[in-house]
Amino acid sequence: MIIIGLAFAVLSALIHVYIFVLESVLWTSPRGRAVFGTTEEGARATRELAFNQGFYNLFLAVTVFAGTALALAGVFEAGAALVYAGAGSMVLAGTVLAATSRDKLRPALIQLAPPLVGVVLLTAGILV
Predict the structure, then answer these.
(1) What whole-number distance in Å separates Cα of residue 63 and Cα of residue 24?
(2) pLDDT digits (tens, 9 = 90+) for 104-121
(3) CA spacing 20 to 30 A to 26: which of 37, 38, 50, 95?
(4) How is residue 26 annotated by DSSP?
(5) What is the biggest distance separating any 2 CA atoms in the chain, rounded to whole angstroms?
């Protein structure tokens, strides 16, 4: 169960790398504006905020990648701690999005469901 939990955590990290690309690289592009439903003017006005927010998502992904690598390399406790920190933050960020923007429930679930499954399965694997 630990390996499956780590796999879900890595999937979560990949999703957050994609979010980073959308927010920090493609924010003002037609693709980025279509995903987030922003106008060209609105995207230009919020570009710096989105750029910064994208890096938060990237840092969460890097934390999960590093934790997974450590866990698989035999430094399990430190690796699991990093996976819990990164994936747990993803879950909490998705929860905040769902709670504050009801119209963004679908993206919030995309952001929070895979890391939640990863954390639950990792925990179950540790406890067994």
Answers:
(1) 18
(2) 999 999 999 999 999 999
(3) 95
(4) S
(5) 53
**Distance of alpha carbon 107 from alpha carbon 12, whole angstroms:** 13
CA 117 to CA 95: how far, in whole Å?
14
Q: Give 23-57 pLDDT, tens digit per residue.
A: 999 999 999 999 999 999 999 999 999 999 999 99
Alpha helices in the chain (DSSP H): 2-20, 30-36, 40-45, 47-72, 76-100, 105-127
Q: Would you state the structure tokens that stand for residue 118, as one six-digit string? A: 């990863």
How many structural domains comprise the chain? Answer: 1
pLDDT at 20: 98
- Please give the residue range of the domain that contains residue 17: 2-127
Residue 59 CB-half CA count within 13 A: 8
Tokens of 87: 């994936």
**Matching residue, tokens 């504050």:** 100
